[in-house]
Predict the structure of DMT family transporter.
Amino acid sequence: MTETELHLPPPRAWVGPLLLLAGGVFIGLAPIGLRLGLDHLGPQAIAFWRYVFAIPLLFILLVAIERRMPARINGYVVLAGTFFALDIALWHWGLTLTTVANATFIVNLGNVCVGFIAWLFLKEKPKPIWFAAVLVAVIGAAALSLGGEPGGKSDIRGDVLAIGAAIMVSGYMLCSKLARNRLGAMDVIFWLTVVEAVVAGFMVIISGESFMPPTLAGFAAPAFLALAAQIGGQGLIIAGLGRTPAAIAGIIVLIQPVVAAAISWQLFDESLTAIQGGGAALILFGIWMSQRRPRRRPTTPESKPLQDAVRNAQ
């Protein structure tokens, strides 16, 4: 075995993080789809149709891939779906009052906090490098959010709603992790979406919004969100949670505000300053730090006899 081979991560060790990273990129498109759909539907109705459009597609995918009907739903899925639907409801309201980057940053603080919650409840103690990665990523996220030019569209009411969404997203990540430990990824994402559609329907009624857009063109944004954010984004994140510690997952999905801010720069004229660009770079660096693994010391001729003796003794 060469020294290079000794430094390689365990087989499939990167599958979970890569799934989470791809899911975070797709979820980063969610605020873009919301902004583009607000001319036709309210924020809660957009969320409702996002889930409704995704349900039949997820059912077809589950049956085609697993060759069976969905497994029985459990309580963790119900809790996770409720938390996520409330997170999206508060986040959608917040996005109508503050900038995309600001709302996304605050919500994603909940993803970081889930690492501490998992440590407390799931006994998933993070490695020391995780704390440094969190610090770097949060500083970067703060710079991305708060480093814009003054006089923007930020509103304290939107920030408060985003804080509530951050609390919900922590509960969602924790319960999704528990659900994923008991069910397959396809079962979890399917039942999550069903629960989310039910909760979102109540949110539309409570908010007084109309379920139907004035024209069929109003369904374009929810359909886009169903494919990109719900099936692509949330589906990949659920799959990645089954292969990745919750603490690491919370940092990886911080790619969301980077994607959202970069696209918003072009679509909504929310230009990025040098500070915000540096913040985006820090987030990416924090994600990279969270994935670092300790280097294994190569086996030397002098140490090999001792290692063989220990192995034989075991």
The radius of gyration is 21 Å. The chain has one domain: 13-292. The longest helix spans residues 156-180. The CA atoms of residues 9 and 293 lie 8 Å apart.
